[in-house]
């Protein structure tokens, strides 16, 4: 009986602690305007009960992060029940203080960056130029409520510890037994909702780590910090990708060989000293260019621009799971994205021979523009490191005209243009548009095409959205002309990746494909447009295979900047060599051949097509392409995993 009395003190202390911390976590949810729980604690436990006893279905995460938050605290601190009462009181007070500090730090950080403090942030903190305001400005007196309980409990505990001897405790076996049971319950409360979430298709979140807040919305605050620490240890300590001396040598040799082949083009330096305005368009594919439906052009403005620009008609996206961020990365560093995850998230602090950094060396002012949360894809960490002086994110834009995820592209382009006008010339502005994001549903008033009877609803929504963005581009071009930037700037438009509807035999792929054979389908799947408009350069359609890693070498040629001293994987699309694009998933296309890799990447199971006869040819014809793909991806991965550019620059 006595034992029971003592262990219940351990339990009461623990329960009190758990409730207090959960309450503090709700304060963070309030200040970050994220959902903690759709309904109260009682309803949650009622549903849990119904789930256990009556086998009713239960999707805890759809209702908020209350359950995982309870689970995380219990799982992390159940061991305090093992302690004798005296020690437990001290441990819980210290933990309460530390957790309150963490919650306070996240609250202040969130107020400025709308993000959580992650390992990437902590490692980058010195370089974060955008931390304009001091911590003092972010702090509110009401934040002290996080420590209010300690004001009561610390003196109370000191009083109790001083005046009562508290020598009697439940025996260690009972404490360990109850503690362990509590731990198991905590593990269930934490992991069951996550398991349920992953089962219902949420696994992508952990593969990609889109943003810390996205993870938080599933794991809660403590869960996020736990996950982030695990990711950090996995990436940088336990499974750190090592690049050995031989791999370094191989990579170096690869660049030396590549850089030894000087390519001469008639374009060299033709745009020297001009501004560069490069626009990455969301999910923009090339099959829409010049295409008509019932007499309507899908992209009338881009079609017109094509008549005045260098238009590259056989360019392919090379992105992997880092999607938009992969495209940005490849276009701005001429390296391949990683096989998993986004470089922006995994290696944001590496040194790269990036476009903004190189242009900066050449006297350019640089800025990135993307009207979305700065933490998404870790951009606010990645951009300054790539060499962008300024990052204009959602909070820097007037957000009255909204479509889908953010402000409309038209509003985004125009506002960005006015910000560019404030920049010191020559400048490089990199814009990442967003309106044509999956699922492509835009309000009826913006749907201008008559698409009755065309494809399926996915394709129709996609085309409406693409058409809208084209219109926004038209307005943007007009404005650039009016404001005098058109003639002093090189303007680039390209797409980031496919629409997501390009699987075998979908209405989208059928609509897109030009040749009605298996190869025709392959050819259009990954096609993205690339326009380079440069004042004084004659329009030309360039029918050469290429990818996003080729954008930078091509631009450097136009700007007259010698490419040979840099570590770029891509090739100048304006030279007279054969075009080549290598995909992260193993396939390769050249101007003459298409090697379609098998899922197991084994070349024996791959397919080789001759693009002239459009027939399958023996795999041995494509074997060199297979080898080139493996080699290039290896070199690029070594550069990233080993931060080799930094290493070479220091040698
Ligand atoms: C949001 C945007 C997301 O910032 O980049 O695009 P996604 O990677 O989902 O295509
Ligand atoms: Mn995208």
From TrEMBL:
Question: What topology in the membrane does the UniProt record assign?
Answer: Multi-pass membrane protein
Where is substrate bound in this sequence? 437
Keyword match Isomerase: no
Per UniProt, subcellular location reads as:
Cell membrane
Chief localization: membrane
Q: Which Gene3D superfamilies match?
A: 3.30.1120.170, Alkaline Phosphatase, subunit A (3.40.720.10)
Q: Which UniProt keywords apply?
A: Cell membrane, Manganese, Membrane, Metal-binding, Transmembrane, Transmembrane helix
What positions does UniProt annotate as the active site of this protein?
324
List residues of the Sulfatase N-terminal domain.
275-561
What's one Pfam family here? Sulfatase
Source species, domain of life = Bacteria
Listed GO MF terms:
metal ion binding
For this protein, the record's CDD domains field holds: LTA_synthase
Q: Which InterPro entries match?
A: Alkaline_phosphatase_core_sf, LtaS-like, OpgB/LTA_synthase_biosynth, Sulfatase_N
Which pathway is recorded for this entry? Cell wall biogenesis; lipoteichoic acid biosynthesis
Q: What is this protein called?
A: Sulfatase N-terminal domain-containing protein
């Amino acid at each position: 009986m006595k034992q029971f009395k003592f262990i219940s003190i351990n339990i009461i202390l623990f329960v009190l602690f758990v409730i207090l911390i959960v309450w503090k976590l709700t304060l963070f949810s309030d200040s970050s305007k994220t959902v903690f729980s759709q309904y109260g604690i009682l309803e949650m436990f009622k549903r849990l009960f119904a789930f256990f006893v009556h086998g009713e279905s239960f999707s805890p995460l759809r209702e908020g992060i209350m359950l995982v938050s309870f689970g995380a605290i219990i799982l992390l601190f159940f061991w305090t029940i093992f302690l004798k009462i005296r020690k437990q009181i001290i441990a819980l007070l210290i933990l309460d203080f530390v957790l309150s500090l963490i919650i306070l730090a996240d609250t202040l950080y969130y107020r400025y960056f709308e993000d959580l403090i992650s390992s990437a942030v902590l490692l980058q903190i010195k370089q974060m130029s955008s931390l304009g305001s001091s911590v003092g400005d972010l702090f509110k007196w009401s934040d002290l409520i996080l420590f209010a309980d300690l004001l009561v409990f610390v003196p109370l505990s000191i009083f109790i510890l001083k005046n009562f001897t508290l020598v009697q405790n439940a025996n260690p076996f009972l404490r360990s037994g109850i503690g362990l049971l509590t731990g198991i319950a905590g593990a269930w409360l934490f992991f069951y909702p996550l398991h349920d979430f992953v089962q219902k298709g949420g696994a992508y979140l952990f593969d990609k780590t889109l943003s810390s807040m996205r993870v938080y919305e599933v794991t809660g605050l403590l869960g996020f910090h736990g996950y982030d620490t695990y990711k950090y240890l996995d990436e940088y300590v336990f499974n750190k990708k090592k690049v050995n001396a031989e791999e370094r040598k191989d990579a170096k040799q690869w660049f030396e060989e590549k850089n030894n082949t000087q390519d001469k083009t008639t374009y060299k330096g033709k745009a020297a000293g001009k501004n560069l305005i490069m626009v990455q368009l969301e999910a923009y594919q090339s099959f829409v260019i010049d295409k008509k439906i019932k007499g309507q052009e899908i992209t009338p403005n881009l079609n017109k621009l094509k008549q005045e620009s260098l238009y590259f008609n056989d360019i392919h996206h090379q992105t992997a799971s880092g999607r938009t961020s992969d495209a940005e990365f490849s276009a701005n560093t001429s390296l391949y994205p990683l096989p998993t995850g986004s470089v922006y998230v995994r290696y944001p602090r590496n040194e790269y021979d990036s476009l903004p950094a190189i242009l900066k060396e050449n006297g350019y002012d640089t800025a990135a523009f993307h009207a979305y949360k700065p933490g998404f894809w870790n951009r606010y960490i990645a951009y300054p490191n790539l060499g962008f002086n300024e990052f204009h994110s959602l909070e820097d834009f007037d957000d009255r005209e909204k479509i889908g995820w953010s402000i409309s592209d038209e509003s985004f382009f125009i506002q960005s243009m006015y910000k560019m006008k404030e920049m010191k010339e020559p400048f490089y502005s990199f814009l990442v548009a967003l309106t044509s994001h999956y699922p492509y549903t835009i309000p009826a008033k913006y749907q201008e095409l008559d698409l009755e009877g065309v494809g399926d609803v996915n394709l129709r929504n996609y085309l409406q959205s693409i058409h809208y963005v084209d219109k926004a581009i038209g307005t943007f071009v007009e404005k650039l002309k009016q404001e005098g930037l058109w003639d002093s700037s090189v303007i680039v438009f390209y797409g980031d990746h496919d629409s997501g509807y390009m699987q075998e035999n979908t209405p989208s792929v059928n609509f897109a494909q030009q040749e009605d054979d298996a190869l025709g389908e392959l050819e259009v799947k990954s096609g993205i447009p690339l326009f380079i408009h440069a004042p004084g350069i004659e329009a030309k359609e360039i029918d050469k295979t290429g990818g996003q890693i080729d954008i930078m070498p091509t631009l450097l040629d136009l700007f007259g900047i010698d490419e040979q001293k840099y570590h770029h994987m891509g090739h100048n699309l304006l030279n007279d060599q054969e075009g080549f694009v290598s995909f992260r998933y193993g396939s390769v296309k050249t101007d003459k051949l298409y090697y379609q890799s098998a899922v197991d990447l084994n070349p024996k199971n791959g397919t080789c097509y001759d693009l002239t006869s459009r027939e399958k040819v023996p795999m041995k014809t494509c074997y060199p392409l297979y080898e080139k793909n493996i080699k290039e991806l290896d070199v690029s991965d070594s550069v990233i995993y080993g931060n080799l550019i930094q290493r070479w620059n220091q040698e």
